[in-house]
Write a structure and sequence with these properties.
single chain, alpha/beta, Spore Coat Polysaccharide Biosynthesis Protein SpsA, Chain A, 2 domains, eleven-stranded parallel sheet, seven-stranded mixed sheet, 7 helices, about 15% helix, about 35% strand, binds uridine-diphosphate-N-acetylglucosamine, binds magnesium ion, cell shape, acyltransferase
């Protein structure tokens, strides 16, 4: 059985002029992730130890966006064409190995398609991924004689009778390293773009009695590249629609699948309902019967069964138990744990807090660095004063505590179980042996006072 080592090269040296950007093209994001990272993920399915990225424009920026010592970085100082790019990698590879060529700007290629391509045994052939396209403009055209591939001609080099050819080169191919070294020595840059085209090896290989075998991707969207921001936006739409479709077919209700955005992974229980314009980032898990209102942004969080997240709430890095109510307009800044039946209402900002079961902060509060027990009521406008200008300080609130509206809890502070804090109290020290705390302020009710008149 032929079972050669497959190296994977990802071409990413091009500047991507048409993006009109300071950022290398392949670092622009699709669903929140740099496009090249999709390609690297696919490469890892093939061989995680033999991945080569050919880089050039803003290379250091590109390299530093990966924290992955397994990637081999190959500098192509001048971008003289795809053939020249591949030639930079070949000296590092053995003649009896194979080379799979992927493009850093074609992110949606599937591992199934690549696996089928890799099943072609390139010892005596080249495996080429081609597509019959309704719009072949801009792509290299596949030339066949009696059905056999003999050549690829780049769009800028085709003659008028070849304009009607609809089979295009996706750029993705697999070939034997030794043969590639030999063929690439024979290409030149006598063409419209004055570049060394990798595609020119096809004709040379054919003349060398090599069989060029083509396969087609399962889905033509897989080979869509990104050359400008319009194409990037279109690909984002395609990608989001596919994710939405998958979720709906697995039982999730999306009130408008065209206004759904997943930038990471989303796992849902049964009968989840997601309203319009919700954004999910990183890894989110929604339990059974969770309802997410419109305009919410949920990042890296777990939301338990029967929770309701009302409109325009933002939840980051948090963990909600079952039957919690959140929002509208709540902001979970980071690291919030809600126990069963807890409730965080409108205009509450909350960070580094654990809130016990059935505890509530329903209106206009800031809660930070706090451990709050169960059955606690946090009145409207209550603030944990957790910052002395230099340090973050903790607040501990026991079970069954009632905090009256507009109170300030000056941290570090601890309030025992069952305590009541009267409305408008500034709590300055720990409450241990009392069940009511209030500020003694004299209040005057004047009878004959008048508002000042205009002078
Ligand atoms: C290439 C193919 C074309 C195919 C199309 C599919 C060639 C000559 N043409 O054309 O047949 O239909 O892709 O999208 O291969 N790159 C480098 N170094 C270079 C030049 C390019 O790393 O010197 C990288 C780019 O960053 C990009 C990829 O190679 O990731 C393709 O280059 P690009 O200039 O986009 O080639 P196309 O003209 O699209
Ligand atoms: Mg291109």
């Amino acid at each position: 059985m032929y079972n050669n080592l497959i190296n994977v090269v990802i071409l990413a040296a091009g500047k991507g002029t048409r993006m009109c950007s300071d950022l290398p093209k392949v670092l622009h994001t699709l669903a929140g992730k740099p496009v090249i990272k999709y390609v690297v993920d696919i490469a890892k399915h093939i061989n995680r130890n033999n991945i080569y990225i050919v880089y050039g424009f803003k290379g250091e920026l590109l390299k530093s966006s990966f924290n992955d010592p397994s990637i081999n970085w190959i500098l192509q100082e001048e971008q003289l064409g795809t053939g020249h790019a591949i030639a930079q990698v070949l000296p590092y590879l053995n003649d009896n190995e194979d080379l799979l060529v992927l493009y850093g700007d074609i992110p949606l290629i599937s591992k199934e398609t690549i696996k089928r391509l890799c099943n072609i045994k390139p010892k005596n052939s080249i495996g080429l991924l081609t597509v019959v396209s309704d719009d072949p403009n801009g792509y290299g055209r596949i030339i066949r004689k009696n059905g056999i591939i003999t050549e690829i001609i780049e769009h800028k080099d085709i003659s008028s009778h070849q304009f009607t050819i609809r089979e295009i080169n996706t750029g993705i191919m697999i070939a034997n390293v030794g043969k590639l070294k030999h063929w690439l020595r024979n290409i030149n840059n006598n063409n419209a773009q004055k570049e060394y085209y990798l595609t020119d090896v096809i004709k040379i290989a054919y003349q060398d009695n090599c069989f060029i075998q083509s396969i087609n991707p399962i889905d033509t969207d897989e080979i869509k590249g990104i050359n400008n921001r319009l194409q990037l936006a279109n690909l984002e739409k395609i990608y989001q629609n596919k994710q939405a479709e998958k979720l709906m077919l697995s039982g999730v209700t999306l009130l408008d699948p065209n206004r759904f955005n997943l930038r990471g992974t989303l796992i849902c229980g049964i009968d989840v309902v997601i309203d319009i314009d919700v954004i999910f980032e990183e890894n989110v898990v929604l339990g059974n019967r969770v309802k997410i209102g419109p305009g919410c942004i949920i990042k890296n969080s777990f939301i338990g069964d029967d929770c309701n997240i009302y409109p325009y709430s933002v939840i980051n890095n948090s963990n909600l138990s079952i039957q919690c109510d959140v929002g509208p307009f709540s902001h979970f800044r980071n690291n919030v744990n809600l126990d069963k039946n807890a409730c965080i209402g409108n205009f509450v900002e909350i960070k580094n807090v654990s809130l016990g079961s059935a505890s509530k902060a329903k209106h206009l509060s800031y809660l930070g660095n706090s451990e709050i027990g169960s059955n606690v009521n946090i009145g409207a406008g209550t603030i944990t004063c957790n910052y002395d200008g230099k340090n973050k300080l903790n607040t501990v609130i026991g079970n069954n505590v009632f905090i009256g509206a507009c109170s300030q809890l000056i941290a570090p502070i601890s309030i025992a179980d069952n305590v009541t804090i009267a409305a408008g109290t500034t709590v300055l020290r720990d409450v241990k042996n009392a069940n009511l705390v209030l500020n003694s302020k004299q209040q005057i009710h004047k009878k004959n006072w008048k508002r000042p008149s205009e002078k």
